[in-house]
User: Which sequence fits this backbone?
């Protein structure tokens, strides 16, 4: 019996994934490249007529079971860099690059950056990679997330400038000894507890990094009022938000003494609030 080529296997896999994914062909190509141990571009240029590796079919079945491609391969690109990911962390998404863009634009020369809920480290490490004079601290309550962020810092050559610590902003004394920062990043849990989510998200991504009460605002209510004691007088904080949360989070920020400017993602959806102390914003 004649074995099929990689090109044929990719077509068949894309058909197999039609009920699972909106990017069936891309998913199949990425999984095939992973099975071969080559880049996707190398796959498309050099391997389409090769024999199919044995490990490909199990990868397709995992994807057919809704497991995200990033967890299957263990990698996700963010802000032009490759990050290790696992089910201990949320998968970095392109929409979150809005947070990095807003921070770099508003604080072009940070010296100390803090990432609250560091996860994979994508936000903090992207800022540090773009600003070689900055140092940063990433905090998380998950040991698995901290290990992943530390691994990414080392892989990106940022280990000397990025420190990770286990801290939980819902616990008393969590900020002891932190000092002040001129750039604070935060992508806290903000999904409503009963929100309808794709199975690939609800069943695979860490619930502790997703859900924040009935209206998705529980973590903002705790974290935002504590930011003034962590932010330097002329510093900025950038919070990722859900598409319906701009106004309630803005109100929390203003009550804490901040002005807030909304930033939209590339699709035109509300994605981030940039906070500054009101007195400094008004005198600028």
Assistant:
């Amino acid at each position: 019996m004649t074995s099929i080529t990689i090109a044929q296997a990719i077509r068949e896999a894309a058909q197999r994934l039609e009920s699972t994914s909106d990017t069936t062909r891309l998913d199949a190509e990425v999984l095939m490249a992973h099975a071969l141990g080559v880049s996707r571009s190398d796959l498309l240029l050099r391997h389409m007529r090769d024999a199919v590796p044995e490990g490909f079919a199990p990868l397709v079945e995992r994807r057919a079971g809704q497991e995200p491609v990033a967890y299957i391969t263990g990698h996700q690109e963010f802000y032009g860099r490759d990050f290790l990911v696992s089910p201990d962390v949320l998968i970095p998404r392109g929409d979150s690059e809005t947070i990095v863009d807003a921070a770099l634009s508003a604080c072009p020369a940070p010296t100390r950056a803090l990432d609250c809920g560091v996860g994979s480290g994508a936000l903090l490490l992207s800022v540090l990679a773009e600003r070689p004079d900055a140092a940063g601290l990433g905090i998380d309550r998950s040991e698995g997330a901290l290990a992943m962020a530390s691994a990414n810092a080392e892989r990106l050559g940022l280990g000397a400038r990025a420190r990770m610590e286990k801290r939980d902003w819902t616990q008393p004394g969590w900020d002891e000894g932190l000092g002040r920062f001129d750039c604070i990043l935060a992508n806290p849990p903000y999904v409503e507890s009963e929100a309808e989510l794709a199975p690939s998200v609800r069943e695979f991504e860490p619930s502790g990094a997703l859900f924040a009460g009935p209206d998705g605002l529980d973590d903002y209510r705790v974290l935002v009022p504590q930011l003034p004691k962590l932010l330097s007088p002329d510093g900025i904080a950038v919070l990722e938000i859900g598409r319906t949360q701009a106004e309630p989070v803005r109100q929390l920020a203003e009550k804490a003494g901040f002005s807030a400017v909304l930033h939209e993602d590339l699709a035109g959806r509300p994605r981030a609030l940039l906070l500054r102390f009101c007195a400094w914003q008004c005198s600028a």
Remarks:
- Strands lie at 75-78, 81-84, 112-116, 135-140, 162-166, 181-186, 231-240, 258-264, 270-277.
- The mean pLDDT is 95.
- The chain has twelve helices and nine strands.
